Amino acid sequence: QVQLVQSGAEVKKPGASVTVSCKASGYTFIGYYIHWVRQAPGQGLEWMGWINPKSGGTKYAQKSQGRVTLTRDTSVSTAYMEVSGLRSDDTAVYYCARPPSGNWDDAFEIWGQGTTVTVSS
Amino acid sequence: QSVLTQPPSASGTPGQRVTISCSGSRSNIGNYYVSWYQQLPGTAPKLLIYRNHQRPSGVPDRFSGSKSGTSASLAISGLRSEDEAEYYCAAWDDSLNDHYVFGTGTQVTVL
Predict the structure, then answer these.
(1) For chain B: N or C, fewer Cβ within 10 A?
(2) Residues facing residue A4 across a β-bridge
(3) Hey, are the CB atoms on B101 and A62 less than 8 Å from each other?
(4) How many beta-carbon pairs below 8 A join chains A and B?
C-alpha cells in the first residue's frame, strides 16, 4: 500500500543539525511532491516546504528559508529534511506528506508517522 | 500566527450535527481550494476533505465541506464518539511567496 515511513526520534543540542528521512513505497516516488509539516508540543500545524522528487526543485516557507534544506534520493525513494542551527523552539514532531495528485498545490493525503525532534542542552 | 481562523472548540451529543467554520481572506480561501484534516492525539493528521468538498476514499459521507467567498465550513453529521479530535482547515496562500496555511484548530468534544 502507499505509505511514507519516517526515521526515528532524535535528541539534539542547540546549534546542531538534524536530518529526518521519509521513505516512500507503494507508488512512483517521482510522480508526487513531498511536503514537510511540523507541530510543536500542544501547538498547531506549520507547513515548512516541498520538494519535487522528479526535478529536485524546492520551495520553502519564509520561516524555513536559510535553515531548512530539502533533498531526495530517487534511487531509494526517500526524501530528506535537514534543519540546521537547531533552537529549542524547533522541538516538534516533523511530518512528511504527499498530495493525492501530482500537483504541488493540492492537499496532503498520505502522511508519514511523524518524527519527534527534541532540542535540549 | 495562523491566517485561517477557527473556533477553538465545538461540541455535540452523539447523533447531532456539528459545524466548524474557517475564516480566511482573498489570498488563501478566496483563491484556493480548502482542505480539512482530523488529528487524533498522538497521531498524524488525516485528510477528510480536499478541493472544498471532495472526500478521499474511506472517509464517511458524514463529513462534508463547503466554501463561500473567503470562508469555509466542515459539517459532521451523525456525530460519533470516535469523531472527538482536533480539526484543522487549510489552504494555499499566495501572499508572501506561495505557502500552505493551516487554521488555528478546533477541538470537537462528543458529550
Answers:
(1) N
(2) A24
(3) no
(4) 57
Taking 70 as the pLDDT cut, the residues of chain A under it are: none
Q: Say which residue the cell 488525516 belongs to.
A: B46
Q: How is residue A114 annotated by DSSP?
A: -
Which pLDDT score is estimated for A49?
A: 95
Pick from A45, A106, A109: CB nearest B88: A45
Closest chain B residue to A35 measured between Cα atoms? B100
Per-residue pLDDT at B1: 59
The position carrying cell 480566511 is B24
Cα–Cα dist B90/B87, whole Å: 10
- Cβ contact (<8 Å) for B33 and A107? yes
Give the Cα separation of A12 and A23 in Å (integer).
Answer: 22
